[in-house]
Specification:
CATH topology of the largest domain in chain B: Ubiquitin-like (UB roll)
Low-confidence stretches of chain B: none
Largest interface: A-B, 30 and 30 residues
Structural class of chain A: alpha+beta
Strand content of chain B: 5-15%
Shape of chain A: globular
Radius of gyration of chain B: 15 Å
Mean pLDDT of chain A: 94
Number of strands of chain B: 5
Distance between the termini of chain B: 40 Å
CATH superfamily of the domain at 177-281 in chain A: CO dehydrogenase flavoprotein, C-terminal domain
CATH architecture of the domain at 177-281 in chain A: 2-Layer Sandwich
CATH class of the largest domain in chain B: Alpha Beta
Largest sheet of chain B: 5 strands, mixed
Distance between the termini of chain A: 57 Å
Oligomer: heterodimer
CATH topology of the domain at 177-281 in chain A: Enolase-like, domain 1
Radius of gyration of chain A: 19 Å
Order of helices and strands of chain A: EHEHEEEHHHHHHEEHEEEEEEHHH
Structural class of chain B: alpha+beta
Helix content of chain B: 25-40%
Strand order of the largest sheet of chain A: 4-5-10-6-7
Shape of chain B: globular
């Protein structure tokens, strides 16, 4: 049986986590499924569930200025609806709106999405494109940790039991960008993405960003595709070449597994189409 | 420590609720509110939808203790003074109920939508109900029911 602790502040949450026997509960939408499975299989339950939903430090949302920060405790419903997120980081708002269902988005948080570390997590792909660095707190202080180091393998993180994710520092972006989040799944709601893609283009293609999810064990931007975009002339030819490059990167990293027969052409076409959409948002032709 | 929460307007206090217990388990097992259904138990089907402080969520994915000090509304709490809520009436009148298992969750998810948007498009209704599975009706009459309830509510139905 787990003891439930309502943390009213970051200090309370960290004190409750300090012995290392607790689990952080934010929305609960992934953790409750895991606890249910543990109970049904006679597995161990955490000694404490530390509810951080009321911790003000996790609810920060700072989008303007040189150091944008998105609090780990913000729900997907909030991120999807927030006018500031929709204006500055629309790909994050789109990813948030595509998570689960209305009911899931009311509880589920961006921090929980990262801590759960599913390779198909929509929030993770969006954060990867935005250069997110997690800010992690423990009783010893705070440390920054890039997303790619925090998530070490499918469903595994380097987060220690005494730590909690405070939020994510994002790269500031130019005033005008074309951002699109795309997702391929079996059902409109609640589908685990078979493929998700976050794209952010600037007008001169100086800093194109492209993150592909549900394809690799850990989150990543596709540096080779981004280099190709920086060097090329915007247009259908370039978008198609980028799609080829993204698909090639997938098979290089993951090999030709069964799902590749579907995923390779899907990556190629979704990448080309999403780049064209992002460019069109900047007023460019397809 | 007792778990204190308000369910359908009634203050409730429950002893010895384990931290890992879901809100769904407590509603059904401890309070006997069997209108809230368990379909999948993992947040895929929406049959366990309830309102927590007026927002729809899956009670199977919510720890009971997350509801401490808050307002929970289940399908049993929707009718007022012996009168069905317009959503409930619309579901009955349009034949949007067949086996009925998904209906409480559908109605509460629709309630959340209509509270935020009193004139939703079909697309908005479909999006709001996308987390609720129905295996009987084919959804057509559910959509009609929500449209009809929205109209009644706009026209000031009781």
């Amino acid at each position: 049986m787990s003891r439930f602790i309502h943390a009213a502040s970051l200090a309370e949450a960290l004190a409750a986590l300090a012995p290392g026997q607790g689990r952080v509960l934010a929305g609960g939408t992934d953790l409750m499924v895991a606890l249910r499975a543990a109970r049904l299989s006679g597995g161990d339950l955490p000694a404490e569930l530390v509810d951080v939903a009321a911790v003000p430090e996790l609810q920060q949302l700072e989008l303007e200025g040189p150091a944008p920060l998105v609090g780990a405790g913000l729900s997907f419903a909030r991120l999807a609806a927030d006018p500031g997120v929709r204006a500055r980081y629309p790909l994050l708002a789109q990813a948030a709106a595509s998570v689960g269902s209305q009911q899931v988005r009311h509880g589920a948080t961006i921090g929980g999405n990262v801590a759960n570390a599913s390779p198909a997590a929509d929030g993770v792909t969006a954060l990867a494109a935005l250069g997110a660095v997690a800010v992690i707190a423990s009783a010893q202080g705070q440390r920054p940790c890039p997303l790619g180091e925090l998530i070490s393998a499918p469903y595994q993180t380097t987060l220690r039991p005494q730590e909690v994710i405070l939020g994510f520092a994002l790269d500031p972006l130019p005033a005008r960008t074309g951002q699109v989040f795309a997702k391929v799944g079996r059902r409109q709601a609640l589908s685990v993405a078979r493929l998700n893609l976050a794209v952010c283009l600037d007008e001169r293609l100086q800093d194109p960003r492209l993150a592909l999810g549900s394809c690799f064990p850990t989150p990543r931007r596709l540096a080779q595709v981004e280099a190709l975009l920086r060097a090329g002339r915007p247009g259908p030819g370039l978008w198609q070449a980028a799609g080829e490059q993204a698909a090639a990167h997938f098979t290089n990293v993951c090999g030709w597994r069964e799902s590749a027969a579907y995923k390779v052409p899907a990556i190629r076409r979704v990448t080309a189409r999403t780049l064209a959409q992002a460019w069109a948002l900047l007023g460019g032709g397809s | 420590m007792d778990l204190c929460l308000t369910v359908n307007g009634q203050p409730i206090s429950l002893a010895e609720v384990p931290g890992e217990a879901s809100l769904l388990e407590v509603l059904r097992g401890r309070l006997g509110l069997l209108g809230t259904k368990e379909g999948c138990g993992v947040g895929e089907c929406g049959a366990c939808t309830v309102l927590l402080d007026g927002r729809a969520l899956n009670s199977c994915l919510t720890a009971a203790w997350q509801a401490a000090g808050r307002q929970v509304t289940t399908i049993e709490g929707l009718a007022q003074g012996g009168h069905l809520h317009p959503l409930q009436r619309a579901f009955v009148e349009t034949g949007a109920v067949q086996c009925g298992f998904c209906t409480p969750g559908m109605i509460l998810a629709a309630w959340d939508l209509l509270q935020r948007n009193d004139h939703p498009s079909d697309q908005e209704i479909k999006q709001a109900l996308a987390g609720n599975l129905c295996r009987c009706t084919g959804y057509h009459d559910i959509l009609r029911a929500v449209r009809r309830a929205a109209r009644w509510l706009r026209e000031g139905a009781p």
